[in-house]
């Protein structure tokens, strides 16, 4: 049995990653070929020629079609054979490559894993800050050598920052603020409210003023495999609260979407949507580089953790009080897998 949900949308790539040249990517153990047609539609098909199984991503693009580099079988964007290896051989349109439902939204290319007939674009997770007016969004992609659920555990854990990120975003004050965990249906939330603290350098620069601030962090698990973290600061006295902070100070959403590759590896799509300095492209590029450095600290820990899990098959992960968010997110995933495919929830993160 797989360790991920089916009949769901998963991020396959950033919009900018897919162009005319073939892109090979393994998603939920299936080799996938991605490319764009002349009218910029994204095509997704099984990355294996139906003749001798050479990856089609090694093939030659011809118009909107792709020709296998081994014997020259030509496959159209619908996955159907258009030309046989021998020009004298009669075309057999029964030769097909499996194709997949694709949608583009919120700067991402989404691929439906499961029954293609159930692929409803309305079920794509609502990453509204990535597309909303008055916000800007950018980020990156890493292949990580760990089970995607370890990344979910990490992102739903608000206690690891002090130690893992001691040289970047960690603050001792983070360990002093109480953490609340809640869940309803497929939605799991971990939140922390830090009133009257000193703003770390990034948020002080974003707010463009000194003085104590009220700071918040709210982690939302979004099925099947994303964590969106609502973060920001407001000057003390501005009226911000944990429940109402959308009109005070500066705010961002850390966007994290983990797509399983195998049982011990995944694709990590990350970024940040923000509502301040949205026209400053230089700042966007600098922050993307800084954010990538912070996530590299997580990746080092998580890949070491995965290696240790494999090296210690007689030991099991343990959950303490600080692990509540990750534990509840895992339960959502496990319930769905054990109960079989069902209509996904499309919970919206708070505006």
TrEMBL record:
<protein>
    <submittedName>
        <fullName>Aromatic ring-hydroxylating dioxygenase subunit alpha</fullName>
    </submittedName>
</protein>
<dbReference type="InterPro" id="IPR050584">
    <property type="entry name" value="Cholesterol_7-desaturase"/>
</dbReference>
<dbReference type="Pfam" id="PF00355">
    <property type="entry name" value="Rieske"/>
</dbReference>
<feature type="domain" description="Rieske">
    <location>
        <begin position="9"/>
        <end position="111"/>
    </location>
</feature>
<keyword id="KW-0479">Metal-binding</keyword>
<dbReference type="Pfam" id="PF19112">
    <property type="entry name" value="VanA_C"/>
</dbReference>
<keyword id="KW-0560">Oxidoreductase</keyword>
<keyword id="KW-0408">Iron</keyword>
<dbReference type="InterPro" id="IPR044043">
    <property type="entry name" value="VanA_C_cat"/>
</dbReference>
<dbReference type="InterPro" id="IPR017941">
    <property type="entry name" value="Rieske_2Fe-2S"/>
</dbReference>
<dbReference type="InterPro" id="IPR036922">
    <property type="entry name" value="Rieske_2Fe-2S_sf"/>
</dbReference>
<keyword id="KW-0411">Iron-sulfur</keyword>
<dbReference type="GO" id="GO:0051213">
    <property type="term" value="F:dioxygenase activity"/>
</dbReference>
<keyword id="KW-0223">Dioxygenase</keyword>
<keyword id="KW-0001">2Fe-2S</keyword>
């Amino acid at each position: 049995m797989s360790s991920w949900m089916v009949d769901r949308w998963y991020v396959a790539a950033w919009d900018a990653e897919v162009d005319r040249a073939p892109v090979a990517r393994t998603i939920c153990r299936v080799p996938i070929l991605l490319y764009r047609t002349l009218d910029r539609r994204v095509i997704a098909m099984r990355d294996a020629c139906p003749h001798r199984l050479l990856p089609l991503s090694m093939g030659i693009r011809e118009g909107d079609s792709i020709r296998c580099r081994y014997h020259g079988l030509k496959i159209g964007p619908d996955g159907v054979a258009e030309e046989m290896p021998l020009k004298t051989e009669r075309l057999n349109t029964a030769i097909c490559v499996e194709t997949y439902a694709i949608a583009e939204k919120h700067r991402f290319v989404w691929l439906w894993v499961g029954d293609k007939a159930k692929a409803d674009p309305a079920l794509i997770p609502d990453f509204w800050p990535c597309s909303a007016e008055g916000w800007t969004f950018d980020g990156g992609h890493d292949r990580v050598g760990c089970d995607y659920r370890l990344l979910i555990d990490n992102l739903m854990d608000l206690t690891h920052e002090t130690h893992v990120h001691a040289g970047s975003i960690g603050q001792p004050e983070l360990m002093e603020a109480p953490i609340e965990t809640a869940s309803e249906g497929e939605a799991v939330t971990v939140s922390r409210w830090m009133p009257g603290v000193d703003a770390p350098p990034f948020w002080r620069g974003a707010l463009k003023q000194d003085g104590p601030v009220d700071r918040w962090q709210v982690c939302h698990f979004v099925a099947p495999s994303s964590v969106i973290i609502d973060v920001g600061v407001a000057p003390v006295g501005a009226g911000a609260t944990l429940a109402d902070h959308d009109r005070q100070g500066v705010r961002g959403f850390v966007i994290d979407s983990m797509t399983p590759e195998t049982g011990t590896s995944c694709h990590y799509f990350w970024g940040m949507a923000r509502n301040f300095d949205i026209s400053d492209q230089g700042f966007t590029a600098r922050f993307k580089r800084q954010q990538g450095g912070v996530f590299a600290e997580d990746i080092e820990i998580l890949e070491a953790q995965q290696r240790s899990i494999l090296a210690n098959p007689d030991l099991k992960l343990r959950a303490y009080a600080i692990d509540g968010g990750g534990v509840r997110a895992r339960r959502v995933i496990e319930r769905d897998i054990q109960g079989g495919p069902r209509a996904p929830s499309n919970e919206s993160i708070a505006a």
